[in-house]
Amino acid sequence: MGRRKPRRTKRSHEEPVLYADSGSIVAGRDVKNSNSFHTHTTVLPAGALKRAPKLEAPTGLSNVPQPHGFVGRDSQLAMLDAAFATSGEVIVQALHGLGGVGKSTLAAYWATKRSRSSPQWWITADSRTSLDSGLADLAVALQPAFRSAETGADELREWALLWLATHRNWLIVLDNVNDPQHIRPVIDRAGRGGRFLITSRRATGWHQLSSAIALDVLEAPESIELFTRILNHGKTRTSEGAAEVCAEVGCLPLAVEQAASYCAETGISPRSYLELLKNRPAEMFAATTENGEADRTIARIWSITLDHLRDTPLAGEVLRVLAWYAPDGIPRSLLDDLRYPPALRAKMTRLRSQCGKHDAKSWRGRIHQFRHLYAEQMIDPLALNNAIGRLAAYSMIGERDGNIAVHRLVQTLARTSDPKDPHRQAGDIADAHRTASSSLAHQIPKLTSDPSTWQASRPLLPHLIVHAELSQGELEGTITASLLTYASAFLYQTGSINRSIAIGCRALEINERMLGTRHSDTLVGRSNLATAYWAAGDFKTAIRLNETNVAESATILGADHPQALKFRFNLAATYRYVGDFKKAIPSLQSTLADLERILGADHPDTLICRHGLACAYQAMGDLQRAIPLLQSTLADLERALGADHPDAIISRGNLAGAYQDAGDHKKAVSLFRSTLADCERVLGAEHPHTLTSQKNLKNAYQAAKTRKRPDESRSGKDCREK
């Protein structure tokens, strides 16, 4: 006998359609939204679904875990309060951020402390299977009779979805969602009266489904509070060094919790933990306390994320290369080499490394030819774009306006080898370091003393310094020294003298050890370092370094080599500055004659030397020779380099000083005033030349009032490496 289809009845509100016969009940519903239809048909036991719309949840039903280690997050809590305050249709809110940033903790805290919904149900939703299992558990919690019934997981899921669709004021937390599309059918069928709170590492894909709140690391005071709370739980311990630990792990909540728990269980101090983290990072990233969860460690949680990106192998390479730069403001162009296949990338790296060992101009020509005849044909920008996009989607990196940011702990992990982790193999990490070194060396522009060219170098400077700091031991090489030499010279040009000296010392030590004391790179680095010592007032060290350079360069390069002439000028100018005119004047005169003969009278190096000689005449009181030579040299510098070039500005200041020495206070004050204005505009208010100009102008005003000669504090520094 055939089955008879029952008559449909009109309903005043939207709910699942029920069809009943003598044996079973079938639930079926087409849910329409702006983008898709979802059709579900499942056979359930007779009578089960009929009770779902009428069954009320037990008071206080919740399986939301009690949050532990919660601090701060006031703004995010307020945002959740505001988002869920609206009544009416189902409201969906997503929390996204880096693994370990505290998304689940925030969700649990808001649910248990701020939400008034009932029931509250927590579902781990990292896969469709776990999502279905969580819904089935909800059905059993709402209808305990299911425990003794032979009801399948699909039937329980459908019962739970029917219950959600026909009730109000519930809260479902979907934790650790990997793919927004996995949860979309559930949200589409959930009716109008409840709330979904989602946590996910995914930063993208929510625009069609929910509003989203990005979660960042804790503020420093909050991370210290979390550390000390865990450390002192049950027993008061010293928290000295807690701030340093929190800073080292980048205020990431999971890392702070992991470190504090380790200190509390083992009894070691925070400072001892820092030493362990420095010397044995791989073990500390994977360390758990006795009752800790193995999957809740820094090493494991990010390894799981990269497992999800296994179909994008370049993503791991991108992360390993980014690990060798400063964490913020990484120009995307530093990843351009990853557009090449690995074999070609290795070839490019080898070619670039030859620039420091042989004639740089010749080897740059070879690289240019190699790229344009062969390598450029193999570029795959889409693969790199995809890798960067997927890393950003999983909150492993951030990208904005062509710059990339990555958490410093992610970087540390990515450059720490672990044979058990396929994403952190020693060979892959070494390859990434070579790629990072080569990219930096290739992209730094030529350094000049013209401030208009400095802007191109500024974004790269933090990455040069951090990369060199990380390149220790076996990773240290001639490229490291080259990057350090560049950074030292740039810092000198921009007025950071002490940093220039510290970095220049290491560059010189590497070059002397790896290339020898007479290599051209060693000579340039030594000269730059001498100039920085001179600017810092350590003339004894500056003279020693310059004398070594003059002796070595005369042997290797020859007395008439332009570079050797620069070294001679620097030494003579330093003699002049310490008042040794018997050495300074003859050396400056002979060097100037050689520069005019070899480079020409209008070459910038020649003009700088002429300026130095004029300053020497001025310093020894021979103003009749000093002032005309300063006047003509200033005119030539302005013509050759431009009026705003630092060398021209310094020359104007020295001419003003000569006028003052000659008693022409009106000219001196006027020229000092314009020199100060130029320094502030071109070099900035804090540059040493600007500060010197301020002092010189103040002294000139005072001298003009008293009609006395200025004190010896006026300075017109003219010695610098070119």
Strand content: 5-15%
What is the CATH architecture assignment of the domain at 49-214? 3-Layer(aba) Sandwich
Q: Summarize model confidence as the mean pLDDT.
A: 83
CATH superfamily of the domain at 49-214: P-loop containing nucleotide triphosphate hydrolases
Give the helix proportion (percent range). Answer: 40-55%
The CATH topology of the domain at 49-214 corresponds to: Rossmann fold
Strand order within the widest beta sheet: 5-6-7-4-8
Secondary-structure-derived class? alpha/beta
Major sheet characteristics: 5 strands, parallel
Question: How would you characterize the overall build of this protein?
Answer:
With 722 residues, the chain is α/β, with parallel strands linked by helices. Among the domains are: 49-214, P-loop containing nucleotide triphosphate hydrolases (Rossmann fold, 3-Layer(aba) Sandwich); 220-279; 559-722, Serine Threonine Protein Phosphatase 5, Tetratricopeptide repeat (Alpha Horseshoe). It contains 30 helices and eleven strands. Strands 5-6-7-4-8 form a five-stranded parallel beta sheet, sandwiched between helices. A three-stranded antiparallel beta sheet has the order 1-2-3. Strand 2 and strand 3 (37-44) form a beta hairpin. The longest helix is centred in the C-terminal third of the chain and has 19 residues, at 623-641. It starts with 16 loop residues before the first strand and ends in a 16-residue tail after the last helix.
